[in-house]
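Re: the 307-residue chain
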Amino acid sequence: MKKIFKLASLFLLVLFLFATCKKDTPAPTASFTATVTGNVVTFTAIATDYTKFEWDFGDGSYINTIPSPSHTYNEYGKDFTVTLKVLGEGGQMVVINKVTIPPKTKMQLLTGGTAATSSKKWRISASAGIDFAVPNAALTVAKSYPAGILGAIGLAQVYTDEFVLKGDGSLTINPKGGGILAGFVYCALNGVAMAPDAGAKSAGLAYAKPFTTPAGATFAVNEGKSFVVPVTADGLTTANVTYAGVTTLSFANKGFIGIMDFMSECIVLELTDTKMKVAFFLSTVAPPATQLGKATNVLIVSFEVAP
C-alpha cells in the first residue's frame, strides 16, 4: 500500500513540475529587418524562445523555414506584405512588415539584368511607324509614316540588324543584312559605301554596306540630363536647343544604336522590357552649306527585343 502511495505521489509531482515548467515557458518574441537589392531581399530575424520559423513572402511562393532567408521576387515596382510566424514551446508570435521592390533601372530594361554578362538584343520594329519631327524643344512631329515604311523606300533589311546592349556597358552591332541604316549626307561626306536607292536618298537615309561592327564600342545611360543639340534650319546659322531632364544613350568608340550619323547620342522617349522609342538627330546639310553635321531633322523610331 505504501509503495502504491509513493508511486502515485511521485507521478503527481512529475505532473506538477511539468505543468509548472510549461506555464513558466515564455512566449517567443520576434522582429525582422529586410535589405532590398534590386528584386532580391535578405531578411534578418531577431527572435527568442523559438523552435521554428515560418516566412510568407507575400508573393504566393512556398513557406520558408530558414531563420534568415534571401528571397527573389519576380515582380518589380510593387509592395509585398511579408509575414513571419515564430513558434515556440510557450506559444507563437506573428510579425508583419511591408517590403517594396523598386522598379527596374533603365540599365536593367536595356540589358535584361544587373550582371555584367547580361545582354539584350534590340532591332528597329517593322510593326511600328516612324515619325519625322522638328528639332525644337517639343520635338513637334511634322509627319508620321506607317509601319514598315523603311521597306517601302528600299531599306527592308534594316529591320533585321541587331544592337546588343550588355550589362558591362559594351555594345555589339550585328549587321544581319550586311549593312546598317545611316544618314545619306553622313555617308557621302565620309566616303562610306552605300547600297544605292533613290527612295532612301530622298528621305535623307542610306544603307551603309558593307559594315563592320566597331571594336570596343560602349554605351552609357544618362538620366535627367540637360541635352544640348546644335540645330540649323538653313545650313548657314546654328541655334542650340536644350532638352532638359531627358534620358539619353551616349556612345564611345564609334558605337551607336539604330542610325549611323553625325550625332550618335539620342534621347530615349519610352522604355519597357520589350519596347523602346528613341529620337535621333539627323543632318541633311550638304556643301556648300557651312553648318555640316548640325541637326536638321529628328527621326523617332521604335525598337523591339529581337529573339
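The chain has two domains: 24-101, 106-305.
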